[in-house]
Amino acid sequence: MGNDQSSSSSGISTSFSFLSGRKGGNSSFRKKTGQIVVVRSGSSGTLCSEEDISLKKFKEIPKFYPILKSALHQNGLHDSPDIKKKISSRAIFRLATCFQDYFGEYAQLIASEQGYIASRIKDVDYFVTVFLDRLVYRKKSLEVLQLQSEKLSEVKNELENLKMRLEDLLPQVRSLNEFLPEEDRLPPLSLIHLFDSLTSTSTASSTTTSGTSTPAEDVISPDSLLTNLQIEPIEECYVVDK
Q1: What pLDDT does residue 117 have?
Q2: 3-state secondary structure 23-57
Q3: Are 202 and 159 in contact, with CB atoms under 8 Å apart?
Q4: Coil, strand, or helix at residue 79?
Q5: Which pTM value belongs to this model?
């Protein structure tokens, strides 16, 4: 019904009338200032007028000052002449006594804590000194072990050179032995056990340098090296020139 009445009065449907209203009524509905759309202009009057009730109530609230107004350090504020009569000396003395006891207890607590901290600092200093001494001792022992390991490596290199020389001499010894008569020939010379003993000594030295202890039975003496050559004794014969 409303649509019929509006259409009959204007001759245009409500939707079209709305669009036509938007197109034609924009200039009267809002103003454009550059890119800013002004919906409602502000009031020219002051927002906080003197007739505002809340502002009057705030102004009626009295100001509260301390008993000693001079403590605020503001111009125009002075203590009243009868202030000494209003303040009781006993109450001030009690307040001062309470403050004295309070600060005394905390001073004793802080002194005890300072003593405890000082003792702990001394203990830590002692432990650090002992630790540094142990580190220096371990460093010196490691330097000694390093020198010993270097000497052992030198001895190992010399033994390897000796092994190579013996291997080079072994065929010559065999050839010389073949030149002898059969009754004067020596048994064949074997250096396998000697080389095995050398390798065992090198492994024993490496284990000692790495920190493991080797028993005395594993250490090979020079007598055992001579016995490992497996050279059978022969009968001595004296040659007398006639």
Answers
A1: 96
A2: HHCHHHHCEEECCEEECCCCCCCCCCCCCCHHHHH
A3: yes
A4: coil
A5: 0.35
